[in-house]
Predict the structure of Phosphoribosylaminoimidazole-succinocarboxamide synthase.
Amino acid sequence: MSRRRQIYEGKAKILYEGPEPGTLIQYFKDDATAFNAQKKGTISGKGVLNNRISEHVFTLLGTIGVPTHFIRRLNMREQLIRQVEIIPIEVVVRNVAAGSLSKRLGIEEGTQLPRTIIEYYYKDDALGDPLIADEHIACFGWASQEEMNDIADMAVRVNDFLCGLFAAIGIRLVDFKLEFGRIWENDYARVILADEISPDGCRLWDMTTNEKLDKDRFRRDLGGEAEAYQEVARRLGLLPEGENSVLDLDQHRAKRGK
């Protein structure tokens, strides 16, 4: 079977032409980057884990009425998604002070915020994804006010749901990144959730020990990245009992042709 035409390659995923109009195949890589790709490396099996975790989360979000680009998982590293026009804004939802928020405002990392904060960043690697305000979005036409209202509403719903989902398995949802896209129905555009939700774009801390179970282990040279991602998948019930390595799972499924 010949490989489908590549549409786009990002830092963590590759998009290929889908089998039907309006669809794409999203392939999850093991590549890891940090600090706007200034630091690069590989987390063995990350693509397999992120595919499974993102599939699980997007499926659950669909059951509570959050519209997403996810259609179905195709295999261990690929999923079928709706093709969207990506809105060039990264939406960051923060529940606990960490990362750039702590550095910008001098708030000790781990401080519970009095209320959830939603921040917007302009998607441009060359500029370092700068923090932007609603006025910038309106001025440059990156999204309409109606679209931003929908995005904010969905971000709050996703946060409420994920906080409960992770708390139930002993994980504190510190913050996370969302991306949204437009799908066109005749002349009408609708905003839906796109990209992925995985330990690549979330800060996930063990509620008891505060151990980091996300890409901060790579950013900060803490080691144990693959084990941390596996732990998240295991707690979500996505790794079979007794499965020690997601690579073993990947290779086992590959032999079976799945």
Q: What stands out?
A: Residues 254-258 have pLDDT under 50 and may be disordered. The first strand starts at residue 6 and ends at 9.
